[in-house]
Amino acid sequence: MSMPAARKHRPRRRLLTAATALTGLVAVLLSAPSGAQAAETLVSQNKPATASSSEWAGTPASAAVDGDNGTRWSSAFAAAQWFQVDLGAPTAVSRVAINWEGAYAKAFTIQLSTDGSAYTQAYATTTGTGGAQSIPISGTARYVRINLTQRALDIYGYSFWEFQVFSGGGTTTPGARLLSYAKPARASTEQNDVNCNPCTADKAFDNDPASRWATSSTNGWVDPGWIQVDLGATAQVSQVVLQWDPAYAKAYQIQVSADATNWTSIYSTTTGDGLKDVINATGTGRYVRMYGTARSSAYGYSLWEFSVYGTGGNPVDPPAKPADPTFPATRLVFADEFNGAAGSKPDTAKWTYDPGVPQNGEVQYYTPNSENASMNGSGSLVIQARKQDYEGRQYTSARMNTSNKFHVQYGKVEARIKVPKGNGLWPAFWMMGADFLNGRPWPYNGEIDIMEVLGRNTSEAYSTLHAPAYNGAGGYGQKYATVDLSQDYHVWAVEWDSKGMRFLLDNREVFYAAKDTVENTRGPWIYDHQFYVILNLAVGGDFPGPIDATTPFPSQMLVDYVHVYQ
């Protein structure tokens, strides 16, 4: 149940070393580590490539391994296709990066072979979304093949600008750790106004990906612009990770200093492209600075996070995150079976009514009344939308949540639900970041939409994430076709840990949001904290559209159970 507003980010990512900035879909490390990581090696560029077909002579297989994002391979207009690169010798491979053209694959597998005859599967998906994909794999191969089986655009074939295979990327600096958390920070200027309050330098070092530093909107939209951190003592720096806001640097340096006066550059680039930069550069100093010399736009500079890794310094450990669950998770930590007597209200030890006027252009009033939310005596909660005058509105419904009763970080969150059919109806099962209750505004708290269905087409559903950098119509998610969901109960779930979220419908994966992919194609991942569960049935609004004379009232969203496992 997203709130309106959106801004979209282009899908690009960079891994950067002190010596070079790779072109094309550049090499990357797949997550901000607890220790520094070695640079990966691109092992596929200009190696022999073959394919099942080519659309025409101008799009040969070789064009996808030439390091040029202006050339591409494209296939014949058929569903069953493949592309393969010969690395020349058996190689320990760690990742495949694909920069898709518009004709991407929804379903494909990646296979490895040492002899070009016997292949093993290293990765598979049926929910590909195109753009820039970074896929971790593990194995030894001379031949790396992608088998393409379902097109996003049925009238075309498949096409990508670059298909890159990488090797390496393990930890290389013993004892390396995060050195910059909660350390004193300074910047050339800071923004602290109605549009960004506060966006001070310390926000880039607070390990909170939903807060940021920005240069002042009154005198900071100039070059140069900089931000620095005091590590507390001399440190041996081995890696810097920058998570950029759209106001990123095209040209900048990473510098170190012993005294915050005399600076030495350990990395520089003039081709910065924003989002997440993982910079493997070494140097010694107490102070580390990002020194920007060319902005990407008319605005200033802004970073969600600036993380420095290495040894030495005087580090402070950030709060520990809970351990990741092992899926399938089996330890039940919350359950409501809704087995109360007919007409009885939900358990107030578990649920809070959330009455009032909604957002998103909806027309109902959410009431605390049992006629809008009560048990039916047959094992289900009934959330009912009614045509009814109430508090100046002509329609009523219910919204209820577990706020201040049950909060959770990581696990499997599931509900068995039957949705209503009708124009303008909008049932939802979702979660909000619990810091919303302490005053952090949406979307900075984060929103996880496990299920949304629009009553006008109950053969489709949506699972979506919302954050400061991607929200509203620009949320990160998936629409998926299914059976008519209004005809029976169905189980929606999310399996959520520190690496991502796997969304399920009737135990079938419909969408996977990888933390690494989100950070490197859309913006910060802001879901590593506690959330609470919400159930509601909206009427009308920006997303489902208006009700009309055919919309049935009353309409019911039936919930058989809600379970949370860890």
Automatic annotation (TrEMBL):
Belongs to the glycosyl hydrolase 16 family. GO terms for biological process: carbohydrate metabolic process. CDD domains: GH16_laminarinase_like (cd08023). This is Licheninase. Keywords: Glycosidase, Hydrolase, Signal. Residues 30-168, 171-311 form the F5/8 type C domain. The keyword RNA-binding does not apply. GO terms for molecular function: hydrolase activity, hydrolyzing O-glycosyl compounds. Residues 1-38 form the signal peptide. InterPro entries: Beta-glucanase-like, ConA-like_dom_sf, FA58C, Galactose-bd-like_sf, GH16_AS, Glycosyl_Hydrlase_16, TAT_signal. It holds the Pfam family F5_F8_type_C. Residues 309-566 form the GH16 domain. It comes from the Bacteria. The keyword Cytoplasm does not apply.
